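Hey, quick one: can you model this chain's 3D structure?
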Amino acid sequence: MKTPVLPNMMPKLQKLFEDELRNIFSAEIALLNTMSKMMEDASSRSLKSALLEHLFETKGQVSRIERIFAQLGKRPMIGICEAIERLISDANQMMAYSDPGAIKDAGIIIIAQKIEHYEIASYGTLRNFAFTLGFKEAESMLEETLSEEKAADQKLTEIAVSEVNVDAAIELEEIVN
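Sure thing. Here's the predicted structure for all 177 residues.
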């Protein structure tokens, strides 16, 4: 059952929508460099390929957010997304202290999937806000981005399960013995 939003609450919901849109915009901008670094540090060809594909998608996502802001008559401003900054810090630390190979690839997948899950939650909520606010075009663009994020997460899972996790286990076994 759909809960009605009272007309006097719409400006507050729109402000929250705009604030969260700025937050994810900042996150996506920050992630562009990190994804490039993760791609450079990955050993697995399939992981490199998935990260490259998602890097191009992320550039498109940034463009969509800019279009949504334009529709709202607003300018996107880059700030700091603390959640993503923490994940980026974790990624940089893991990549700096891991030797190249499957174990590092597994670490990259862990961080990448944490990022994807944050983005899935953010874009799902933003899409729902757009629906409630009657922003049909924004809702459609956010749904497209949400689908891309879910697909990227699924691809990372497939790479982990079919290749990287097994290779990492073998690599760990060789280290221990």
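One thing worth noting: Residues 136-176 form the longest helix (41 residues).
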